[in-house]
Amino acid sequence: MKTLRIVRATLGLALAFHLHAASAQDYPTKLLRIIVPYPAGGSSDIQARIVAQGLSVRFGQPVIVENKPGASAIIGTDFVMKQPADGYTLLLAAPPFVIAPYVQAKVPYELKKDFVGISLVTRAPMVVAVSSTFPVRSFADLVTKAKAEPGKISYGSVGVGGQGHLATELLARRLGLKFVHVPYKGSAPALTDLAGGQINMMVTTLLDLRSQRDAGLIRVIATGAPQRSAFLPDVPTIQESGFAGVDLGYWFSAIVVRTGTPPQIINRLSREIAEVTKQPDVRAMLTAQGVELIGSSPAACDEFLESENSMVDEAVRISGVKPE
Q1: Which structural domains are found in the chain, ordered by start?
Q2: This prediction's pTM
Q3: What is the pLDDT of residues 131-183, one digit of tens each?
Q4: Taking a C-beta distance cutoff of 8 angstroms, is the pair 121, 254 a contact?
């Protein structure tokens, strides 16, 4: 009887493995969802819908976008974490995906434990922008003025613990500077005050401030990534400005899924997203937003998220932000 039970158990495991492998091989056989943990109409939502449309064509299955905003993206992220690890529920991840666990007191998941990367879809470098009325023409000018007038230069952000706040505090610490933080409830009022000269500077993305820059109300004096941006070829990086080792990273969007999703499905999704990002119409729509298209491997996506995680960890410690 004991031998029979062992044989039955072994056959059961073999059958389960076979069905699991077959399911992964036939994937996808039904509707897929991309969960966007932000309201409809924003940049992340637009990018998710473009990817969804491309995947739907390639898979021959409907791919829909569902918006589940709230709690710094925690609501939508937690929803995906609670779905089956079968590759049919994807998450559009953006900076709050990495930041929230550091600044929110109760986060019902662990990024490294509960999620795995599929593809880094887009990225855009952080930029240092000043009001056109502020007497600074270059990043070196900004540093000189900040050292001469510590604690007098103001900068805006979308709120305490946001990406702009953390990036600016990281910048200040690495260069031995002191700025005055003015938090806002969203980018629109912050950019309005920057354009009007009520605040002096802001670290954000070209995606956020393009209209004010085009109108001549805001001046971009440096980009924060290691390489120059294709959208700002005449704007030097912080490192090119003479400040080596200062890297403010990228704003990003990525597709991730629950840990435990079969590797065959992860790799299939990654390949198909990469193909979607190569389509001329997709490239045209996304580059119009001021973002660079990537379409990375799962390993490259995970590596990027890990580097962002390390940067956020350091920035939170420097800024003194406490989970709320």
Answers
A1: 30-124+251-319 (3.40.190.150), 125-223 (3.40.190.10)
A2: 0.86
A3: 999 999 999 999 999 999 999 999 999 989 999 999 999 999 999 999 999 99
A4: yes
